[in-house]
Amino acid sequence: MKNVLDQFKEVSLAIMPMAGLIIFLQFTVIGMPTDVFIRFLFGVVMVGLGLFLFLLGVHIGLLPIGELIGSTLPKSKKPLIIIGVGFILGVAVTIAEPDVRVLALQVDQVSGGDISNLTLVYTVALGVGIFVALAMARTIYEIPLKYLLVGGYTVVFLLALFTPDSFIPISFDAGGVTTGPMTVPFILALGVGVASVIRGGKGSSSEGFGLVALASIGPIIAVMILGVIYG
After folding, report:
1. In the predicted model, is pLDDT for residue 204 greater than 80?
2. CA pair distance 149, 145, nearest whole angstrom
3. Can you give the pTM of this predicted structure?
4. Would you say 99 and 180 are in contact if contact means Cβ atoms under 8 Å apart?
């Protein structure tokens, strides 16, 4: 019950300032038609309800299962299994990410179908999967995060020299949309779960952070490579 009330409070604090500002502007500056304003109020209620249910689902299901998987994998004592499962989960959760599908749909429409919806979705998912696997390897072998970040962005800037101009903004947008509401909770929980076991308990679970930063590099590189192929 406490978790439900906490989520309701969190959603209210997130939505009410924006809704209050629009209502204030409606009666002072904007003066939009009544039917439009009513649709706005209805939309606020629906968004609030949807966000409440989503966050409740994340805390009840996604976070616990992600951390449970992460804490169970190291018990196999097989690094390749941990890295392989990290890759598969990274791909799967990205395919399910709503933000990625919105971007892919927009790119499909703008390109006139030259870059299909599914092509971009699977390219982004592959990039995320590879870098989640790399993040698992980083946790297992205690590789400093700064080396991977510097190396990853070095590859990004080198690829940018050969990538068509039209693909560069798409690639960076692809890196942004992977940090969406589906991917981040699950991937973070997975990383924290793995680190908490490998690094010796909850006190070292902070080592699991930085995984999302790595995962966002993967789509940038993957889409740039796609641009080089299409170019």
Report:
1. no
2. 6
3. 0.82
4. yes
